[in-house]
Write a structure and sequence with these properties.
Layout: H1 3-23, H2 28-33, E1 37-38, E2 47-48, E3 54-57, E4 60-63, E5 69-71, E6 78-86, E7 91-98, H3 104-107, E8 109-114, E9 148-155, E10 158-163, E11 166-172, E12 202-205, E13 212-221
Antiparallel strand pairs: 1-13, 2-5, 3-4, 4-13, 5-12, 6-9, 6-13, 7-8, 7-12, 9-10, 10-11
Length: 224
């Protein structure tokens, strides 16, 4: 084997090794080292819910009806990353920093999950909105039964929401200074000003009577 042939063989070997390493999925250890963790136990033992109302099917959390589902652990500052899909006309929500799971609407923050596909202008009740407080800048939800990616970042008074790769919410809780009123003067349903809402609480998924699915639910707590 001459030197040119040896060089070609060596180059091919290095290429194969490089391509193999690129195609390897990220390991759980690497994810944990970066601060991410899966918060969906296989038996749902780390969640509070009525048995049978939510189940795991093909790796996805599926609503069967009968109530919301809540983490047993509280979270304050974090990045929550997940995928969801809705059926036609589905209404649901992702709650976070919820102080009381028996009164989530008045003690937590809700990112609206809704089949609002096709709307040209999104309002404060459409998918991706901070419910009744702030409309998304763009309607990014996909067609019913297609998976969407949702990322919620909560850091002190700053809340951001991204859907399908585009940021749609940039909210400063401290601008919500009055109960029942948004900064633009429009009314909302909340008895507590959002600047005074709890900064630590449970994460939950809402059962609003229609099918909804969540999967690949992971969280990265943020240092203060």
């Amino acid at each position: 084997m001459n030197s040119r042939t040896k060089f070609i063989v060596l180059l091919l070997a290095v290429t194969v090794v490089f391509l193999s390493s690129c195609s390897m999925p990220q390991t759980t250890t690497t994810g944990a080292r970066q601060g991410w963790r899966n918060i969906l136990a296989k038996d749902l033992s780390n969640w509070t819910y009525k048995e049978g109302t939510w189940v795991l099917e093909d790796g996805a959390l599926s609503r069967k009806g009968g109530g919301d589902i809540w983490t047993k652990e509280k979270f304050g500052d974090f990045i929550l990353d997940l995928e969801f899909k809705v059926d036609k006309d589905t209404n649901s929500g992702v709650f976070f920093r919820t102080d009381s799971i028996t009164d989530p609407v008045q003690t937590g923050i809700e990112v609206q999950i809704l089949d609002s596909y096709g709307k040209t202008t999104a309002g404060k009740y459409d998918c991706g909105a901070i419910y009744d407080c702030l409309a998304p800048t763009k309607n990014m939800v996909k067609k019913p039964l297609e998976w969407n990616r949702l990322t919620i970042t909560a850091k002190a008074n700053q809340i951001t929401v991204a859907m399908n790769g585009e940021q749609i919410i940039n909210m400063d809780l401290n601008q919500w200074t009055e109960p029942g009123k948004n900064p633009d003067g429009e009314k909302n349903k909340f008895k507590t000003a959002y600047k005074d809402m709890p900064r630590v609480g449970y994460i939950g998924f809402q059962d609003h009577g229609k099918p909804v699915w969540f999967r690949n639910i992971r969280i990265k707590p943020l240092d203060k």
